[in-house]
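If you are new to this repository, start here. Below is one unmodified record pulled from the training split, so you can see the exact layout before writing a loader.
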Amino acid sequence: MKTNILIVGVGGQGTLLASVLLGNLALEDGYDVKLSEVHGMSQRGGSVVTHVKISDEKVGAPLIEEGEADIILAFEQLEAYRWLPWLKEGGSLYVNVQQILPMPVVLGDAPWPENLEEALKQRAGKVKAFNALEIAEECGSDKAVNVVLLGAAARDLPFSEEAWMRVISEKVKGNFVEMNKFAFQRGQQA
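And here is the target side for that same chain:
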C-alpha cells in the first residue's frame, strides 16, 4: 500500500492534529510514514497544508508532488480549490463546505472563484462535500471538523474503527476524547 494524503485548511482548524492522528495510526499498523507541515500566516487564518505519506515500503521525500495526492482532506472550500492540482486524476476529495473568505475577497480586491464545486468535481474521481462544521458543532465543538473529515475519509484507508478509536484516545486531550470519537463516527455516516 502507498497512500499520499494532503490535509489543507486555514490556521486554527486542526490540520496538524488530523495529521498526527493519521500518522500515529499508520505507524502503529507498521507502515512507514512521513509528515510535513507547511504554513504561511497560519496564526492569522492563512493557508496550512500537511503532507502525509504512508507506505508499506520506505517513504523517501516527505512532500507530495503536484498530481500525486490520492486523497485531499479540505477543511474549507477555497483551500480545496487551491490545492486541487495536487490531487491525482480520479483521487478522492473530502471537503467541508465552509467558506472562510480570505482578506482580498473581503476587501473586494479579488472575486470568490465561480463554479467552485464544479471545478472540484471535474478533477476528482470521488467528491464528498458536506457541512463538517455543522456536524462538529452538533457533536459539541466546531474544533472537531478535523475528526469529522477523518471519519468520512476512513473508508478509503486500511485502518479499523477500533484502531481509530484507540489513537483518538491516545492523542486527543482527555476532556475531548469522547466528543472526538463521536465526531469521527458522525463523519463516517456523512
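Two things worth knowing about this chain: The two ends are 26 Å apart (CA to CA). The first strand starts at residue 2 and ends at 10.
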